Amino acid sequence: MQMLNLKNLTDEQLVTEFKQTRDNAIFGEIYNRYYQKVYHTCLGYTKSRDTAFDLVQDVMVKMMDKLPALEHGHLLGLWIHRVTSNYCADQYKKRKRFQTESIDDRFDMVAEEIDMEAILLKEDLLDGMEQMMEELGEESAAILRLKYLEGKSVKELQSQLNLGPSAVKMRLKRGRSKIAELYNSRPRVAMS
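-> structure tokens emitted (192 positions)
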């Protein structure tokens, strides 16, 4: 497989090819597509560029090991976000457990705890996202994946799906509404 062809492959095709070949060039394409998103997720947890950079490297190594176990290649972006969030949350907990603090630092911890609650709410959403995407239906799930996981613009979606701008926007709106409806109908985990 040539390097030029990798850019044209979908996430699902990349995952399938990687499972079969374990080719570093294929993982390199995945790395290039998702590096920025992984970095920004890590930065959101750490608030430190250097620490986020270190975590990205750890996450990428972990993903390379676990990628062959991914069953649904079309959910690669969601899976990568999930692996990143779990890893960062684990590192946050470890850091917090072994961290010593001065009395002045306790004021900062209040803000950190609020952030952790927001993170846990996001985790609750991600827990059911794969199931909600399957319940959504293939067509709606596909357009949402293209827009929000692969970062396609409305213009690109118009061209790819052979639809007008209002049709693309309406399908996105219906998909988001259905996801919100499915999410709101899910039982919630109580926060302590």
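The chain has two domains: 1-99, 103-192.
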